[in-house]
Write a structure and sequence with these properties.
By secondary structure, the protein is mainly alpha-helical. The chain folds into 2 domains: 126 residues, no CATH class; 148 residues, Four Helix Bundle (Hemerythrin (Met), subunit A), CATH 1.20.120. It is built from 12 helices and 6 strands. Strand 1 and strand 2 form a beta hairpin. Helix 8 runs antiparallel to helix 9 and helix 9 packs parallel to helix 12. The longest helix has 20 residues. The protein is elongated. The protein starts with 9 loop residues before the first helix and ends with a strand. This is Abortive infection protein-like C-terminal domain-containing protein. It comes from Streptomonospora salina.
Amino acid sequence: MTEYQRLHLLRDRLAGRPTDDTVHPGTPEWLLPCLKEWMTAHVGQREAREVTLEFRLAPHTVRGRYDYLSPLLSLRDLDLLTAIDAAIQLDRRWNAPPGTPANESLIESCVELGRILLRGGSYLRFDPENRCLMRRVDETAQLAYDQACENASDAASKHLRKAWHSAYRTNPDPDGAYAEAVLAVEAVLNPLVHPTAEKPTLSKSYKALQQQAASGKWTLNFGDPERPAKESIDKLIGMCQLLMEHHDSRHAGGMLARQQTQDEAEAAVHLAVLLVQWLSTGVLKRG
């Protein structure tokens, strides 16, 4: 599915300015009509009915028939974007076989929505993998995430994708994002340092890594290949420790138990991206 790029407008080119990549929350006045027009053209009454039920909205009555779309068109900002997101996820055309007219028409409508959001500078984008709207992130961070998922094992990639989705969807789940970030790191670290353990955890692997590092078993693959030097893995151990020690939502009932904040959940996900990439590509190697 195509991800369009913002235009480099003539006025900006002539002035020597870069492309305007400013993102805007909500539904600003230039974006709102386009989103309503898209909903009118692409959201059917069946999907609209289910969304109004989720929103606890009463339908309008037109000539003795219920109109479920009109109440949704009266929404604004995050409520409207949430309704669009819900309608996409509830669309039954996702169940149609790939390549069929029904499936192709849905994909085309999602591509059009993605183009509207991009051209309008929305802080959201359509994510084809998760079939929903997600917050737009820095391009470099997105590329790092994509690369880590590609290089990781299936298990680590699965957890990393769940962590990313939980952190950047329209209704983020910080606790879930943090938990999946930890699982992503466990999925790649545990087999390296605890290959025979039946129930390894990040905490156990962290302690094992400390012990093994003290004996010189591991080193980081940095430096000139012609003059290899054993680089300490203390920095990698420190990143694991940071991720592990601040996972306060893991247990309930304790004095320090709490919900994770959105900021630290995002930080945990990006830390997991780096760790998964390092551990999947041989940055950590036997000394």
